[in-house]
């Protein structure tokens, strides 16, 4: 008789536990552990023995230098920005997860990609969420070529793989992983066990048949669906499509990539006729009005392999509360608290009675410490009501003793600013370029006090 094996898995981080507990001891989240049925023992055994047999015939031990170093073959998705995030294109036989909140534009991006790829190779688009008619109508509205793309509306993974065996696609889209199910597993589609097992099944299928599979994974705030985190370990690449619903810009970022670097950023704009690539993202995040106010600073971020100019705004205002507010949108809250402490101790500026708000314009998320100096200068600019020149960029990391530390890729950041018509810069002294720059006024600063004196 078959016995169900049970595991306990955190829906947030995907950690496994032998028994249920209230708090996940990996990520410290509460009430996220749920029961996972691992399919019946008998089916497990047969698949394991099959896997074992296949392994016997194929596996071979090699020394490292014998390994074939031919570059991984890749094919382009048709979007340079998408390719960049994937590390240079789609690798055949890889499993890619594209995550994002509902409405971010995942289906749109993949439909556009697949319609264009269909001209070059066999493709299969599996939709479990929308009807065939809805997909067709969207493709028509987006004026995409529809004569080649093969379409399937199905949610059973076994049926999908059987049909894929006949179609033999080179690339397949599963939209979305949360509606797919395996008959082995009793729990509902979207639950941790279904999502984990279907993703693992599809990943195996991708490897064995050399089909690139792109899975869509919704990220929901309340965690009602098992998120992309729980299956991140088994797939090759995980990319997130992000964007405010009130902004038309979407950013694509990889969080895991077995074939390239992570944290590459791709930028798209959602227009009336689908997603369009943004080739020069600095230009859009910088669309500043002619007459900018106090508290606004431009800095150069480093995103993967390229610089990105963004604007940071700060507002310092007399507080009505006994506990003044420190709000950071697009930047880290803790970092802001740290910077304000440094400003007090080493800049002599006490903001204890003031609310401090910091906002990164355009919905960009700043995770780099190179934004430190720009954030502080924006705060001081707002507090003292001194405008920072419009054609100035500022970057640099601020240390706890008030020193300004160098950041990586300093000269590329400066060049990007010059390319966009900036004329002045405040940078860490160690990031000063060697030669002179024509018509570009650049100040290297050692500590916070020097930077403040420049204002
Ligand atoms: P969709 O791809 O369905 O999102 P997801 O699959 O990630 O849930 O995108 C839907 C949103 O995109 C929807 O709110 C409308 C918007 N949209 C446009 O603005 N222009 C377009 O051409 C399309 C197709 C969608
Ligand atoms: Mg969708």
TrEMBL record:
Taxonomically, which superkingdom?
Answer: Bacteria
Specify where the region named Lon-protease-like lies, as residue ranges: 355-455
Kindly list the GO CC terms recorded for this protein: cytosol
Indicate which residues form the motif RadA KNRFG motif: 256-260
- Where, in this chain's numbering, is ATP bound? 100-107
Q: Which Pfam families match?
A: AAA_25 (PF13481), ChlI (PF13541), Zn_ribbon_LapB (PF18073)
RecA family profile domain: residues covered: 71-219
Record's keyword annotation contains Acyltransferase? no
Which UniProt keywords are given for this protein, alphabetically ordered?
ATP-binding, DNA damage, DNA repair, DNA-binding, Hydrolase, Metal-binding, Nucleotide-binding, Stress response, Zinc, Zinc-finger
Cross-referenced Gene3D superfamilies: 3.30.230.10, P-loop containing nucleotide triphosphate hydrolases
Q: Name one GO biological process term.
A: recombinational repair
Q: Which InterPro entries match?
A: AAA+_ATPase, DNA_repair_RadA, P-loop_NTPase, RecA_ATP-bd, Ribosomal_Su5_D2-typ_SF, Ribsml_uS5_D2-typ_fold_subgr, Rubredoxin_2
SUPFAM superfamilies xrefs? P-loop containing nucleoside triphosphate hydrolases, Ribosomal protein S5 domain 2-like
Q: What GO MF terms are annotated?
A: ATP binding; ATP-dependent DNA damage sensor activity; damaged DNA binding; hydrolase activity; zinc ion binding
> Does the entry feature the keyword Electron transport, yes or no?
no
| Domains (record comment) | The middle region has homology to RecA with ATPase motifs including the RadA KNRFG motif, while the C-terminus is homologous to Lon protease.
Q: Which family does it belong to?
A: Belongs to the RecA family. RadA subfamily.
Outline what the protein does.
DNA-dependent ATPase involved in processing of recombination intermediates, plays a role in repairing DNA breaks. Stimulates the branch migration of RecA-mediated strand transfer reactions, allowing the 3' invading strand to extend heteroduplex DNA faster. Binds ssDNA in the presence of ADP but not other nucleotides, has ATPase activity that is stimulated by ssDNA and various branched DNA structures, but inhibited by SSB. Does not have RecA's homology-searching function. Plays a role in repairing double-strand DNA breaks, probably involving stabilizing or processing branched DNA or blocked replication forks.
By what name is this protein known?
Answer: DNA repair protein RadA
| Organism of this sequence | Aliidiomarina haloalkalitolerans
Provide the organism lineage as a comma list. Bacteria, Pseudomonadati, Pseudomonadota, Gammaproteobacteria, Alteromonadales
| Gene name per UniProt | radA
